[in-house]
Design goal:
Elements: E1 5-10, E2 13-18, H1 29-44, E3 50-55, H2 66-69, H3 86-89, H4 91-94, E4 99-102
Parallel strand pairs: 2-3, 3-4
Antiparallel strand pairs: 1-2
Length: 111
């Protein structure tokens, strides 16, 4: 997949791992696009019957990488697309396979 998002399979389980420990797995817009693509890949993989989403040990996902916002124009932030693009912006909800989150550590960092 991509540098910070891994999709691996073991038996019938597909695992998507957010791998950016130096930022507590916070996502930039580019990483979010890779994450969305990984969900689509897992959802369409005929060998996978269940999808597990996790982060590298210590944090699940701290949310948006705020340092990425400085390089993202205001008009491009938080765009969700049209109603017809629902699967693009809600990939976990629309994934055709059961999806489980394996959370190790906080799901949000409030420091």
């Amino acid at each position: 997949m991509a540098e910070h998002i891994r999709y691996e399979t073991e038996g019938k389980v597909g695992t998507i791992t957010i791998d950016r420990p130096e930022k507590r797995n916070a996502m930039t817009y580019a990483i979010l696009n890779d994450f969305i693509a990984a969900i689509a890949t897992a959802g369409s993989d005929p060998a996978t019957t269940v999808v597990v989403i996790t982060g590298v040990p210590g944090a699940f996902c701290a949310g948006t990488d705020l340092s990425d916002l400085a390089s993202t124009p205001n008009e491009s932030r938080g765009l969700r697309g049209t109603a017809q693009e629902r699967s693009r912006w809600w990939p976990i909800v629309d994934c055709p396979k059961p999806t489980i989150c394996a959370v190790d550590g906080p799901a949000a960092n409030r420091q």
